[in-house]
Amino acid sequence: MPWTRRPLAALAACVLLSCAAAGCGTGEAREPAGSFTPAPVGTVLDTTDGSGRHLREVAEEDAPEVGVEVTPDSGGWDVRLAFRRFRCSAPGAGPTAVTGRGLAHLFVDGRRVARLRAHEYHLPGRLIPRGTHHVTARLYADDGTAWAVHGEPVQSTADITESDAEAGAPRPPGTATPAAGE
User: Fold this and answer.
1) How many domains is the chain partitioned into structurally?
2) Average pLDDT, stretch 17-45?
């Protein structure tokens, strides 16, 4: 019965075309480079963060947030980041600021030790000498600007103490201390 197949084929074609127009799909498809132009995000300020990058000011209600938890592990420290209104961009993302997207930089006592595009990181023990240290996660847009609220970078800090304890002795975990922008 060819006459029943034609309306079904036409209906299927209409459904597929409407889905394509609406942009539905699995999220696997990528747009060609340069075909997506996001709206301007926030305001780039003249002030910079501690590493010399300009701040990108956004409204508090739209700002991304980050929390950091640091726990001891054999051979170092496990760092876990919790994001709110923020997703890590894929490696190779274009140098454009997109709302709620980017990467985190991890600092130990103000010195950058890693650029993170994931929620977890193992901080090698060789980077943490004896004493108390500040481990800070700060959020950046893909264009290199630091996300900011009220002129302060969006970041979170945990304090950790390395005591050179004997192997197997438990160490206290780091606790997150909210910083500006949260």
Assistant:
1) 1
2) 53
